[in-house]
Each structure stands twice: as structure tokens, then as C-alpha cells.
Amino acid sequence: MAVKTQSNIETEVWGNVEIVCPICRSKKIVNIPMRIIDQSKQLTSLFIPTGRVCDHAFVPFIDKHLKVRGYQKLDALLDDIEPKIDLTPELKPQDIDVFEIKMNLRPEILIYAIRGSLIKKRILIVIDNNLEYLKDTLFDFFDYTFQKSFDAHILIHTKETYKVSKKHYTEYLVLEGKRITGRMKKSLNINELKIEQEFIKEFFKESDSNLALKNLRDKIREIYTLAHKLFEFYNKQDISRPLEAKKAIRYLEDTHFIKISKPYFKFIIDIVKNYFDTEIILIQDKLAEKIDNMWGL
Fold this sequence. Notes:
Structural class: alpha+beta
Distance between the termini: 49 Å
Number of helices: 11
Helix content: 40-55%
Oligomer: single chain
Shape: globular
Strand content: 15-25%
Largest sheet: 4 strands, mixed
Strand order of the largest sheet: 8-7-9-10
Order of helices and strands: EEEHEEEHHHEHEHEEHHHHH
């Protein structure tokens, strides 16, 4: 079904396509700009990457009526056939006690830990002494959450251990209870982390532990994919010229089949700036700067 949507950039038509993985039969509705469908004379082939619908990558063939007419399985991805140094078995959702995490960790801590990892901060989570048994579970939780995406640097100590080694963590985001403590306590404001708040809210509301964990991991992967694509896109442009937001948003929408709102786009830019150490200058920023200079602001 095709629907008109009002984005922050312009009004355009998007199509909803039901995609079914030809390998595991997982289903998901994927939004596709109709301009992509209209460009093809017959069938449109789309690459569905790992994590977009399920853990498999494949290619569906879509007709003008937004019906999938067939699929092509991929024999292998380059990541699967290149030599791997780490032979540790990949964690699965059922390996992790999500209930224990929900019961013993404040949502605010997870929100801070996610944003801190997205902007490449080192993080220390301080837990009560009687929760030391939970350390391995928490390490597994974060390992799974950041699978094949951000390189998170997260340590977990009990209050007793932190008390005697506090001086070694002055440059860390120290998360304790429901707040940031130490020298970095003013580096993040919980009220500004709307996107992470929504992720964690959904994580706590989902009663199916496996699904809650998988959905959170997939959202983090989506952020990484979009940030990395924007980073590559920006570096292929003439970096001496400001980037046009409309052009960048359309690129991300066309390559990942997701509607990009203005707040989400700004969020992705912030990730690129901090995680990939790249300052993206937008045309709008330059215009605002010129206006300020004109009026002596």
C-alpha cells in the first residue's frame, strides 16, 4: 500500500512492502520511497542487509503494485568468508537473563550507557555490592546489544571496588543508581536523550525477553549503519562545501528504507561527529552563521 507522508523536508509517497525472509520466514513491513519503485521498468530489486528484517541478508524483487514476486538468497557475505580472529561463539538472546537486568538496573543507567557508547565515551557502571553476581549477565547484555555495531567500552564494578579505585576513573562516565557521578556528571542531560529514552522504554515494556533484547540490538545497529553511511557519504562530497540536509536525508532514506525525521537526522549527525570524529557542516548552519554576523550577534 502506498501512502503520502509529511516529512520535515517535503511531502512524498512511500510504499509499505511486506518482506518475508526466504531463509527463516521472519516477516516485517519495510517502507520504501515510491520514487525507487517508479524508476524501474519492471521489477525493483532491493538489498535487505543483515538486521533489517532478521539475521539474514537477501534480495526481494518487488513489482509496481508493491508485491514481492520472488527472493534471491545470498550464498555468503564477505564478513562471513574473511578470516576471523575472534572465534568466541556469538551470544544469543536466550543466553541472557533480561528479567534480572530489568529488576536490578535503573532505566536511566541504560539510557546513559547507550548514549555514552554512541559518542565514544568510556563508561563505568557501579552496582550494589550484593549484585556482584550480576556482572557477567550485564557484560553479556552489552556485548549482545552492541553486536556488529559500536565498539562499546563498558566496565562494571561494585561500590566497594569503585570506592578504593575511584581515582582511576576520572575520565569515565560513572553511572550509579540513576545518575552520572564524578567529574563527567554534567556531560549528558537525561532530558535531551529522547531517542535513547524511547528505546529503553520499549525494552522495559516488551514482556518477551528475547524480543526485547533483539529489538534493542537492532535499533542500535540501525543507528550505526545510518551514521556510518552518512560518514561515508559526507567524505565523498567536496568537504570544503557545506552539506545539504535534504540531499543527505534522501540518500539515507533510499539506502536504508526508513523515514528520517529532522530530530533523528540531527541525532545521527551528532553520532558521526563524536564516534567517527567528523564535524559535518550543513548549509543551514552556514546561513545561520552569516545572519548572526550580519546583525552582530
